[in-house]
Amino acid sequence: MRPKTIADLTASNVADGVQLSWSRPRAYADGSPMTDLGGFVVERADGADPHAAFQHVAQLEVTDRDRFRQIKSFRYLDRDTSVGTPYRYRVVSYTLDRYFSAPSNIASLERATVAEEKHAPLSATPR
Q1: pTM for the whole thing?
Q2: Which of 81, 99, 102, 120 could form a disulfide with 95 if both were Cys (CB 3.0 to 4.6 A apart)?
Q3: How many distinct structural domains can be found in the chain?
C-alpha cells in the first residue's frame, strides 16, 4: 500500500543552503497504520518557471523501524543552491516494498544569504 501523502513540508534559508523539514508519515493512503516506512525521495525544481520539472536531489533511507522511539520528523539540507535562485521542493515517501506516496505539498523559496549568528565578544573582568 502507498504511504499517506506528506502535507507539512517546509523550506527555510540557513547559512549552508536550504533546510527542508517534514513529519513522518504514520499511515497508508487508506488511513491504516504504517509500519514499513523505507525512506524518502527529495525532488527540486530550479528557477522561476512554475512548470519547471522536478529533479531527483536525494534519497534518504529510514532505518529506525525496529526502534521503540522512532524519528517523528525529518530534515534534509540542500547545500547545492545559489543565492538569488528560486527553488521548489517536494518529498515522496516509500515503503520497504517500494510503494511510493503521491508527492508532498510544494515548499517554495528564493535562496538568500543568512547572516551567521553573532555572539557578544567575551571579555575578561579584572578581579
Answers
A1: 0.85
A2: 99
A3: 1
